[in-house]
Structures are given as C-alpha cells and as structure tokens.
Here is the input.
Amino acid sequence: MSALRPPLEQPPALHVHAMDDLRFIRQTMEEAGSFTAVPGWGTVAIGLSALVAAAVAALQHGPAAWLTVWMAEAAVALAIAAATMTRKARGAGLSLFSGPGRRFALSFAPPLFAGALLTFVLFAAGHSSVLPGLWLLLYGTGVVTGGAFSVRIVPVMGLCFMLAGAVALFLPAAWSTAVMAAGFGLIHLVFGVLIARRHGG
Here is the structure.
C-alpha cells in the first residue's frame, strides 16, 4: 500500500530558498565580471570624428570658435559611444546596467564632469591654452578608473591619454589642435582597432 502513495511535494520554503541562492550566485558572478561592452569600432569612429574636428578647428579664428568645435565633437563622441556600446552589449546578451557596467560608468563620469566644469572656468579666465592638456588628462583618468572594471587594454589606453595630456600641458598654445588630433584622434584609432580585434567590435 505504501508504494501507491503519491510522492511528497517539496516544501515551498525550500524552493524559495533555492531560488534566492541562485539569484545571489548570479548577482555575485555579475559583480565579479568585467565590463566587456567597450566598443572597438565605435572607438575607431570616435577617433575619426576627432580628426575631422581637428581639421575644422584649425580653420577657426579665436578661442571661442575653437572651443565650440570641440564641444560639438564631445557631443558627437558621446553619441557614438552610447550607440555602439549599447549595440555591442545587446549582441553579447549583456546589460549596460549590470554590476561591472554600472561601476564602469560611476568611475568614468566624475573626471568628465570635473573636466566640463573646469573648461568653462578656465575659458572665462582666459586660460584656454591649457584645455587640450586638461581634457586629455581627465579623460584618460576616467578611462583608467572605469577601465579597472573592464578588459586590461582599456586602462592601458587611459594611461596613454594621461601621458598625452601631461605632455600637452607644457606645449605652446600653437600646438593645441595638433595635440587634440594626436590624442583624441590617433590614440582612439589605435586602441579601437586593438579592442575590435581582441575583444570584438
């Protein structure tokens, strides 16, 4: 008779506990992972747009017009980064707001905010010649700090930006556009190709 008894159902509390454990394990794995949605070909596109901006900036007369060109380029670069990063993340089945992605953004954003604020302060004070070095240095800092949660090549790229910015701070103002082309143009191009080849587009 005992063989005809239906199997006992698993207690609901045990099932809930198991699901909680699985969620905890998944969250822990996400938090420990790397942010791999840095776009290689998107970085190349940002480099190309910076070279175009440098060519346009070289034709401008006066610091205000020069600054306007680079502010427009910053907006274009951010749009390219957002679009290509989203595309790469979706293709890999990742979330931009996962643990590594969130930490990447939170580490990357503060140096950019500081750079934007200092840009207007320094420009208003008549010190626009230091802006290329400042931008490269703080952008590089953001890439290094955000890159700590990404693949190894990303913080290396950030260090190159920081080095370029440090050098640019001691160069004559006449070199401003060339420095921007070399920094935001060429460094993005080189590392964009490397990232695309090693970690996907």
